[in-house]
Amino acid sequence: MWLFAMFDLPVKTKADRRHYVKFRNYLLSEGFSMLQYSVYARYCASEERTKAFRRRIQLELPPEGEVRLLSVTDRQFGKMENYYGKKREPTEEKPEQILLF
């Protein structure tokens, strides 16, 4: 599963910018990668794992703005098409899983 976090947060005041940076840094610290401005994604090994991340993100929501969370399967994610200008680039691969005993 892939979990997308998409957000539109205000940046008009110094406090707004501080909340924006704090939320963005939180996503990065949780292993999310920026796909586009304000669109971040993280690979999760299971649906239960995505639910855990959703709960943790809800605790870190900024006071203003809009945040959307979307889960897609690995297969759906693989169907994504990426373009830079007119040139198509390959879709990101899922990260290797580490097996701990």
Explained architecture:
This protein is an alpha+beta fold and 101 residues long. It has one domain (2-89): Alpha-Beta Plaits. 34% of the residues lie in helices and 29% in strands. The protein contains three helices and six strands, in the order E-H-E-E-H-E-H-E-E. The chain has helices spanning 14-29, 47-59, 74-78; strands at 2-8, 33-36, 39-43, 66-72, 82-84, 87-89. A four-stranded antiparallel beta sheet has the order 2-3-1-4. A two-stranded antiparallel ribbon has the order 5-6. The radius of gyration is 15 Å and the shape is globular. The chain starts with a strand and ends in a 12-residue tail after the last strand.
Number of H- or I-type helical stretches: 3
Order of helices and strands: EHEEHEHEE
Helical content band? 25-40%
What is the CATH architecture term? 2-Layer Sandwich
What's the number of domains? 1
Number of strands: 6
Task: Report the oligomer.
Answer: single chain
Would you spell out the secondary-structure blueprint of this structure?
Blueprint lengths: L1 E7 L5 H16 L3 E4 L2 E5 L3 H13 L6 E7 L1 H5 L3 E3 L2 E3 L12
Features:
alpha+beta; 101 residues; two-stranded antiparallel ribbon; four-stranded antiparallel sheet
Gist of the model:
By secondary structure, the protein is of the alpha+beta class.
